[in-house]
Amino acid sequence: MEKRLPFEEPLYELEEKIAALKRFMAEQNLDLGEEVERLEARLAHLKVETYRNLTPWQKVQIARHPNRPTTLEIAQGMLTDFLELHGDRLFADDPAIVGGIGLLDGIPVTLIGHQKGRDTKENLARNFGMPHPEGYRKALRLMEQAEKFGRPIITLLNTPGAYPGKTAEERGQSEAIARNLRVMSALSVPIVVVVVGEGASGGALGIGVGDRILMLEYAWYSVISPEGAAALLWKDAKEAERAAQTMKITAQDLLELGIIDAVIPEPLGGAHRDKPEAIRRIKAAVKAALLELMPLSPKTLVDDRYEKYRRIGRFASLFDETPSTGGA
Amino acid sequence: MNWREFFRKSTKAKRAPRPLPSPTQKTGDVPEGIIEKCPQCGALLYTRELEQHLYVCPKCGHHFPMSAPERFRLTFDGGRFFEYDADLVSDDPLEFPGYREKLEQAMQKTGLTEAVMTGEGTIKGHPVVMAAMDGRFIMGSMGSVVGEKIARAIENARIKRYPLIIFAASGGARMQEGMLSLMQMAKTSAAVERFHRTGGLFISVLTHPTTGGVSASFAMLGDYLFAEPGALIGFAGRRIIEQTIRQELPPDFQTAEFLLRHGQLDRVVPRKEMRDVLGKVLAVHAGRGRSGGKAASV
Ligand SMILES: [Zn+2]
Questions:
Q1: Which residues have C-beta within 8 Å of that of residue A29, sequence separation ≥ 6?
Q2: Does B20 map to a domain?
Q3: What is the distance between the alpha carbons of residues B12 and A326, in angstroms, rounded to a whole number?
């Protein structure tokens, strides 16, 4: 059964009312067409209104929807000849990060992303999309292979975080993420990053350094999950709704903050309502970014990427006398 | 008085040669400044005595956290150094509730402008660029200023062709600056990569605690990874891990010794040996005559 999000209840109620009315019409052989039309118009209007005015917390819920397109679905949908490749050659194959090669409208690419499951069984197998060090090391291996063959890299971010476990710490979770940040900053091929669902902290960033950072309309990306922030700030994970607002984690907020480069609009109601259309839009946005980046020389790519990250940050100098940045 | 006025006043007052900060001045409260209790063995120690022992308990060897000014003073030859970018202060880009007050409190408490000090000096005669984080300043967390000062220090080391030494001490990324903080991980790591490509030497010393966004970025990227005894080093917090795996963790989990055993560090270096060990590495690197290897280009 489809997972219902609380704020969508009025929509479902109206949909059910329309369905009931139609059944009643058929049973009683009555013509209530006008009433049905009126309700359907109201439903269409309500949908637009609901999804246009989503709060950050509601967006978080959409981003976590179990039917949201996964990395493998997106890879299958936007690439031809997609071939998944496994293993970090050091320890294991992490099912929480997947990667492979394929053609995007004929352009050879390497695609890597966090992989969540669509139900409990799949999620257990995928560790809920929470990678171990071997996941980051597999990603690194595939990215270095892409660089060797001059292949652009696409990474898809969708994780509730790097796995907080004993074995992950023993095998160097910090080192694995840090190394990826370092190496990705200087890979001489284009890297396009798309935040497709949840982008939680270092676990997301660990495959998220690139030339263009795109974000689906209802995805979120944050230094800490809303629940984590709420627990730390207000000692209560139930304050997550407030944290989602305060932390500025939506695509729209992050575009304004200059953290991401573009927002990819989702089909009405979210990517899970029309996966093929969502994947078409992701593909179009990624391809447009690649076409901009591919003509650049390796040196320009790396220099531009360095500058992109080097510039991020907001601070002031005590010697700065400009009143506009003065403290409140 | 807001934090910026506060600091303008204090920097104006400090125009004269800056006195070396002493720990009793910096830690504030006088009663606490005279005697400290060792959290490991319970010994009562005079602060003066503790200072003479580099803030290591003379009874049990417990390493007390060290402030950034003390780290600078006790690591550089003669306690002399030139500080970089002490004028950089945090903004409040998210207009985060309570952040400005928190910054102001941290400044008053530590006498620092941010959670990291950067600068240059010499160690055993070798010029180096150094950064030292200060865990007392909002848990040593990395926001825009910490990221910027670290990145600038790395760039200075690259341009001057000096070795780089960073003493990390941080709870991770600074929540109050949201994604701007997370991106400092990428920024500092990119700066390390550039430095690395020009053949620069980076010694990273992990001190208590080095966790989260700092352990998962520049702190783990040294050519040499050292840690102080007993330092807590890890990505995720112990409590979160226990909740996740529903198992008790070994008592030494995520300590420097634990990491050494699991192949994640080069050495655990007691504080008393730190200057000597750093000196040895610097001496080996200062040795003339390269043979093969990757050509370092600026
Ligand atoms: Zn002791």
A1: none
A2: no
A3: 17
Interface test with B, best of A183, A187, A201 (most B CBs within 10 A): A201
Q: Phi and psi of B112, rounded to 5°?
A: -105, 160
Tokens found for residue A201: 């902290």
B255 C-alpha to ligand 1 centroid (Å): 17
CB contact under 8 A, A328 and B2: yes
Same domain, B123 and B235: yes
Distance CA A67, CA A60 (A): 14
| Nearest-CB residue to B90 (from A164, A166, A315) | A315
- The 10 Å CB-count burial string (b at 16+, else e) for B33-42 is beebebeeee
Which of these three, B23, B40, B64, is where a domain ends? B64
What part of A 74-113 touches B (C-beta under 8 Å)? none
Shortest CB distance from B190 goes to which of A175, A208, A309?
A: A309
Query: How far apart are the C-alpha atoms of A125 and A206, rounded to whole Å?
Result: 21
- ipTM tops 0.90: yes
Distance B270 CA to ligand 1 centre (A): 14
Beta B116-123 vs B88-90: how paired, if at all?
A: unpaired
pLDDT in tens, A105-149: 999 999 999 999 999 999 999 999 999 999 999 999 999 999 999
Per-residue pLDDT of A264-306, as tens digits, reads 999 999 999 999 999 999 999 999 999 999 999 999 999 999 9
Instruction: Give the rounded distance of the alpha carbon of B242 from its chain centre.
Output: 27
Assigned superfamily of A60-313:
2-enoyl-CoA Hydratase; Chain A, domain 1 (3.90.226.10)
pTM, entire model: 0.93
Residue given tokens 């991020």 in the structure block: A312
Does the distance separating the beta carbons of A164 and B189 come in below 8 Å?
no
